[in-house]
Design brief:
Blueprint: H1 3-17, H2 28-38, H3 43-46, E1 47-49, H4 53-62, E2 67-69, H5 72-77, H6 80-83, E3 90-92, H7 97-106, H8 110-117, H9 119-122, E4 126-129, H10 133-144, E5 152-155, H11 163-171, E6 177-180, H12 187-201
Parallel strand pairs: 2-3, 2-4, 4-5, 5-6
Antiparallel strand pairs: 1-6
Helix pairs in contact: 1-2, 2-12, 4-12, 7-8, 8-10, 10-11
Length: about 210
Protein backbone atom coordinates (compact mmCIF):
# COMPACT_ATOMS: atom_id res chain seq x y z
CA UNK A 1 0.00 0.00 0.00
CA UNK A 2 1.07 3.57 -0.64
CA UNK A 3 1.60 5.88 2.35
CA UNK A 4 -1.57 7.87 1.70
CA UNK A 5 -3.60 4.69 1.39
CA UNK A 6 -2.25 3.47 4.73
CA UNK A 7 -3.12 6.77 6.42
CA UNK A 8 -6.62 6.82 4.90
CA UNK A 9 -7.29 3.26 6.03
CA UNK A 10 -5.92 4.02 9.49
CA UNK A 11 -8.28 6.97 9.84
CA UNK A 12 -11.21 4.81 8.77
CA UNK A 13 -10.33 2.26 11.45
CA UNK A 14 -10.05 5.01 14.07
CA UNK A 15 -13.37 6.54 13.02
CA UNK A 16 -15.05 3.15 13.25
CA UNK A 17 -13.63 2.30 16.68
CA UNK A 18 -14.34 5.77 18.10
CA UNK A 19 -17.96 6.07 17.03
CA UNK A 20 -19.99 8.30 19.31
CA UNK A 21 -16.91 10.19 20.53
CA UNK A 22 -18.75 13.50 20.86
CA UNK A 23 -16.03 15.80 19.51
CA UNK A 24 -16.97 18.60 17.13
CA UNK A 25 -15.90 18.73 13.46
CA UNK A 26 -12.92 20.97 14.21
CA UNK A 27 -11.75 19.12 17.32
CA UNK A 28 -12.06 15.57 16.02
CA UNK A 29 -9.29 15.87 13.38
CA UNK A 30 -6.87 16.80 16.19
CA UNK A 31 -7.93 13.92 18.43
CA UNK A 32 -7.87 11.47 15.53
CA UNK A 33 -4.36 12.60 14.58
CA UNK A 34 -3.13 11.96 18.13
CA UNK A 35 -4.66 8.49 18.13
CA UNK A 36 -3.13 7.82 14.71
CA UNK A 37 0.28 8.96 15.96
CA UNK A 38 0.19 6.87 19.13
CA UNK A 39 -2.32 4.05 18.49
CA UNK A 40 -3.65 5.07 21.91
CA UNK A 41 -7.40 5.56 22.28
CA UNK A 42 -6.92 6.97 25.78
CA UNK A 43 -6.72 10.39 24.13
CA UNK A 44 -10.47 10.16 23.59
CA UNK A 45 -10.84 10.65 27.33
CA UNK A 46 -7.80 12.70 28.27
CA UNK A 47 -7.50 15.43 25.64
CA UNK A 48 -8.68 18.90 26.64
CA UNK A 49 -9.45 21.90 24.42
CA UNK A 50 -9.76 25.51 25.49
CA UNK A 51 -12.90 26.92 23.86
CA UNK A 52 -10.81 29.27 21.67
CA UNK A 53 -8.00 26.83 20.87
CA UNK A 54 -8.87 25.79 17.33
CA UNK A 55 -9.70 29.31 16.17
CA UNK A 56 -6.55 30.69 17.80
CA UNK A 57 -4.37 28.06 16.16
CA UNK A 58 -5.85 28.54 12.71
CA UNK A 59 -5.54 32.32 12.96
CA UNK A 60 -1.91 32.09 14.06
CA UNK A 61 -1.00 29.74 11.21
CA UNK A 62 -2.87 31.69 8.55
CA UNK A 63 -1.26 34.91 9.80
CA UNK A 64 2.22 33.47 9.37
CA UNK A 65 3.08 33.70 13.05
CA UNK A 66 6.07 31.78 14.45
CA UNK A 67 5.74 28.25 15.76
CA UNK A 68 8.17 27.47 18.58
CA UNK A 69 8.94 23.98 19.87
CA UNK A 70 10.67 22.76 23.01
CA UNK A 71 12.51 19.94 21.22
CA UNK A 72 14.16 19.32 17.87
CA UNK A 73 12.09 16.14 17.63
CA UNK A 74 8.87 18.13 17.73
CA UNK A 75 10.26 20.61 15.21
CA UNK A 76 11.27 17.77 12.89
CA UNK A 77 7.79 16.22 13.08
CA UNK A 78 5.98 19.35 11.89
CA UNK A 79 4.89 19.48 8.25
CA UNK A 80 6.97 22.52 7.36
CA UNK A 81 6.34 22.29 3.64
CA UNK A 82 2.60 22.69 4.30
CA UNK A 83 3.41 25.93 6.14
CA UNK A 84 5.21 27.50 3.19
CA UNK A 85 2.09 29.23 1.78
CA UNK A 86 1.50 30.84 5.18
CA UNK A 87 5.11 31.87 5.79
CA UNK A 88 5.46 30.52 9.34
CA UNK A 89 8.90 29.99 10.83
CA UNK A 90 9.38 26.86 12.94
CA UNK A 91 11.85 27.61 15.71
CA UNK A 92 13.58 25.54 18.39
CA UNK A 93 16.01 27.27 20.74
CA UNK A 94 16.91 24.24 22.88
CA UNK A 95 20.37 23.82 21.27
CA UNK A 96 21.32 27.51 21.17
CA UNK A 97 24.61 28.19 22.95
CA UNK A 98 23.22 31.13 24.94
CA UNK A 99 20.38 28.90 26.19
CA UNK A 100 22.85 26.28 27.40
CA UNK A 101 25.01 28.95 29.05
CA UNK A 102 22.01 30.50 30.84
CA UNK A 103 20.81 27.11 32.07
CA UNK A 104 24.25 26.33 33.51
CA UNK A 105 24.59 29.75 35.10
CA UNK A 106 21.10 29.81 36.61
CA UNK A 107 20.87 26.13 37.56
CA UNK A 108 17.75 25.69 35.43
CA UNK A 109 16.83 23.57 32.43
CA UNK A 110 17.57 24.44 28.82
CA UNK A 111 13.86 24.09 28.08
CA UNK A 112 13.05 26.82 30.60
CA UNK A 113 15.75 29.13 29.31
CA UNK A 114 14.62 28.49 25.73
CA UNK A 115 11.19 29.81 26.71
CA UNK A 116 12.84 32.95 28.13
CA UNK A 117 14.82 33.48 24.92
CA UNK A 118 11.71 32.98 22.78
CA UNK A 119 9.50 35.63 24.38
CA UNK A 120 9.90 38.23 21.58
CA UNK A 121 9.14 35.64 18.89
CA UNK A 122 6.14 33.94 20.47
CA UNK A 123 3.74 36.90 20.40
CA UNK A 124 0.66 35.81 18.46
CA UNK A 125 2.29 32.47 17.65
CA UNK A 126 2.08 28.88 18.85
CA UNK A 127 4.32 27.31 21.50
CA UNK A 128 4.56 23.54 21.15
CA UNK A 129 5.61 21.63 24.28
CA UNK A 130 6.16 17.92 23.76
CA UNK A 131 8.69 17.02 26.39
CA UNK A 132 9.60 19.46 29.14
CA UNK A 133 7.26 20.32 32.03
CA UNK A 134 9.65 23.14 32.96
CA UNK A 135 8.94 24.78 29.60
CA UNK A 136 5.19 24.62 30.15
CA UNK A 137 5.45 25.89 33.73
CA UNK A 138 7.62 28.82 32.63
CA UNK A 139 5.21 29.66 29.81
CA UNK A 140 2.30 29.80 32.22
CA UNK A 141 4.32 31.96 34.61
CA UNK A 142 5.29 34.47 31.91
CA UNK A 143 1.78 34.66 30.50
CA UNK A 144 0.26 35.25 33.92
CA UNK A 145 2.82 38.02 34.49
CA UNK A 146 1.81 39.51 31.13
CA UNK A 147 5.33 39.15 29.80
CA UNK A 148 4.57 36.61 27.04
CA UNK A 149 1.68 36.53 24.60
CA UNK A 150 1.42 33.35 22.53
CA UNK A 151 -1.89 32.78 20.78
CA UNK A 152 -1.95 29.08 21.64
CA UNK A 153 -0.08 26.52 23.72
CA UNK A 154 0.06 22.90 22.66
CA UNK A 155 0.99 21.36 26.00
CA UNK A 156 1.94 17.68 25.92
CA UNK A 157 4.93 17.20 28.25
CA UNK A 158 5.55 13.56 29.04
CA UNK A 159 6.97 11.75 32.04
CA UNK A 160 6.76 11.19 35.78
CA UNK A 161 7.98 14.47 37.27
CA UNK A 162 5.62 17.44 36.88
CA UNK A 163 4.28 16.36 33.49
CA UNK A 164 0.73 15.74 34.73
CA UNK A 165 0.99 18.59 37.23
CA UNK A 166 2.06 21.19 34.65
CA UNK A 167 -0.84 20.24 32.40
CA UNK A 168 -3.26 20.40 35.31
CA UNK A 169 -2.01 23.92 36.04
CA UNK A 170 -2.51 24.93 32.42
CA UNK A 171 -6.13 23.82 32.65
CA UNK A 172 -6.69 26.24 35.52
CA UNK A 173 -5.90 29.28 33.37
CA UNK A 174 -7.81 31.04 30.64
CA UNK A 175 -5.05 30.59 28.08
CA UNK A 176 -5.90 29.04 24.69
CA UNK A 177 -4.52 25.50 24.86
CA UNK A 178 -4.76 21.97 23.62
CA UNK A 179 -3.45 19.52 26.19
CA UNK A 180 -4.20 16.24 27.92
CA UNK A 181 -4.43 14.98 31.44
CA UNK A 182 -1.98 12.52 32.93
CA UNK A 183 1.59 11.48 32.22
CA UNK A 184 1.30 10.64 28.54
CA UNK A 185 2.39 12.98 25.77
CA UNK A 186 5.60 13.45 23.84
CA UNK A 187 7.13 15.40 20.98
CA UNK A 188 5.40 13.22 18.38
CA UNK A 189 2.03 13.91 20.00
CA UNK A 190 2.66 17.66 20.15
CA UNK A 191 3.78 17.71 16.52
CA UNK A 192 0.73 15.67 15.55
CA UNK A 193 -1.59 18.21 17.15
CA UNK A 194 0.14 21.03 15.28
CA UNK A 195 -0.04 19.12 12.00
CA UNK A 196 -3.79 18.66 12.48
CA UNK A 197 -4.12 22.42 12.92
CA UNK A 198 -2.09 23.01 9.76
CA UNK A 199 -4.45 20.78 7.78
CA UNK A 200 -7.46 22.59 9.27
CA UNK A 201 -5.87 25.91 8.29
CA UNK A 202 -5.73 24.75 4.69
CA UNK A 203 -9.50 24.19 4.67
CA UNK A 204 -11.01 27.33 3.14
CA UNK A 205 -14.40 26.47 4.61
CA UNK A 206 -13.15 27.05 8.16
Amino acid sequence: MKPQEIETLSFKIIDNEAQGHGFGPAEWPVVRRLIHTSADFDYLNTIRFHKDAIAAGITAIRSGKPIITDTEMARSGIRKTALVPFGNRVICRISDSDVADAAKKNGTTRALEAVNRSVPEMEGGIYVVGNAPTALLRLIELIQAQKAFPALILGFPVGFVNAAESKALLLEHDIPYITNTGRKGGSNIAAGALNALIILSMDKQL
